[in-house]
């Protein structure tokens, strides 16, 4: 599979099952490949004496050491075994919504409102079987004519002296259906995802969505990319590579870009203060660099206190020198 697919599946495993595993296959000091393992086939073992971690996988005839397995987990109560979002605390929150959803299915199946009753001014008779049969026929006829969504607006025609009374919905029942919206909000909160990305019906202004997208990177993605960075550095790099300064890093800068005007102000500020070179600003935007653009610029009116004091001292020396020269010149003329 591609690198993108591998990382996507690992992240899905980490969030939905709490753990994501990949066996590290090495050839000497080099890594040949990473073998994705289904989390439901994994078992974590801990040596009670040493605290060392080992892994067992269904279909594998050996036990793997900690350094042989890339293991990602986000929610955890012991730092060893991860928990899914549901296991980490959503189960209780979902309980009420599951009941609401069950009620909601029946609710919407009946046309988003409660049913009604028919009241007959005439008696249907004294024979209970005949009465029940008559009621069934009337109910069946109404269902056939008005029971589907495309027939809800049909005009009702009742034979005989019948009165139809609608069973209106209580406000509390309507709120029960609205509670299903909270499920979207809850999932968004647990994952750090804006509700707009989960196709919520909530109205959000465009500029708000733009800032929500940046918040999503900061609160939702960066915690997970940090998990990737630290685990891959710990397991995939040798000690020699770490000492040489090698790192594993995921670049989120492209995702942090705001609107063009804000980005222009940011880059201008970074270049003007000498933090970025012009070429670094271009690289940040994904543009080509140019010769001579690797210099740091600094405004002339910016200086340090030490340099300012030195400059003042130099200015005084120059002024004193000018006075001496002026005195000397004037004395010579006299």
How would you spell out the order of helices and strands? HEEEEEEEEHEHEHHHHHHH
Which parts are unreliable, with pLDDT below 50 for 5 consecutive residues or more?
Answer: none
Shape: flat
Compute the number of helices.
10
Structural class, judged by helices and strands? alpha+beta
Report the β-strand fraction as a percent range.
Answer: 5-15%
How would a crystallographer describe the biggest sheet? 3 strands, antiparallel
Mean pLDDT: 74
Region (Disordered): 311-334
Organism: wastewater metagenome
Biased composition (Basic and acidic residues): 313-322
Pfam family, one: Phage_portal
Helices, strands, pairings?
Layout: H1 3-16, E1 20-27, E2 30-37, E3 42-46, E4 53-57, E5 63-65, E6 69-72, E7 75-76, E8 82-83, H2 86-109, E9 116-120, H3 128-146, E10 162-166, H4 171-178, H5 180-191, H6 206-236, H7 239-243, H8 260-272, H9 278-284, H10 305-333
Antiparallel strand pairs: 1-2, 1-6, 3-4, 4-5, 7-8, 9-10
Helix pairs in contact: 2-5
């Amino acid at each position: 599979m591609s690198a993108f697919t591998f990382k996507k599946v690992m992240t899905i495993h980490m969030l939905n099952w709490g753990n994501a595993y990949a066996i590290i296959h090495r050839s000497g000091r080099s890594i040949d490949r990473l073998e994705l393992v289904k989390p439901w086939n994994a078992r974590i073992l801990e040596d009670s004496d040493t605290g060392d971690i080992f892994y067992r996988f269904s279909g594998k005839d050996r036990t793997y050491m900690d350094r042989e397995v890339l293991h990602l987990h986000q929610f955890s109560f012991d730092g060893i075994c991860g928990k899914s979002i549901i296991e980490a605390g959503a189960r209780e929150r979902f309980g009420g919504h599951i009941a609401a959803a069950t009620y909601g299915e029946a609710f919407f199946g009946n046309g988003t409102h409660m049913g009604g009753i028919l009241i007959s001014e005439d008696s249907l008779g004294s024979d209970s079987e005949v009465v029940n049969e008559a009621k069934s026929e009337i109910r069946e006829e109404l269902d056939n004519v008005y029971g589907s969504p495309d027939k809800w607006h049909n005009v009702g025609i009742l034979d005989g002296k019948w009165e139809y009374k609608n069973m209106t919905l209580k406000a509390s029942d309507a709120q029960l259906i609205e509670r299903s919206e909270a499920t979207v909000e809850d999932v968004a909160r647990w994952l750090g995802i804006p509700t707009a990305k989960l196709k919520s019906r909530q109205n959000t202004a465009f500029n708000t969505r733009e800032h929500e997208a940046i918040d999503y990177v900061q609160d939702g993605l960066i915690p997970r990319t940090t998990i990737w960075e630290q685990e891959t550095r710990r397991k995939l790099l040798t000690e020699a590579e770490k000492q040489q300064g090698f790192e594993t890093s995921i670049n989120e800068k492209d995702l942090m870009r705001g609107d063009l005007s804000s980005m222009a102000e940011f880059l201008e500020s970074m270049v003007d203060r000498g933090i970025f070179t012009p070429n670094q600003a271009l690289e940040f935007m994904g543009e080509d660099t140019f010769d001579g653009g690797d210099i740091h610029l600094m405004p002339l009116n910016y200086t340090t206190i030490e340099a300012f004091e030195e400059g003042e001292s130099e200015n005084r020396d120059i002024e004193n020198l000018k006075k001496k020269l002026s005195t000397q010149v004037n004395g010579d003329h006299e």
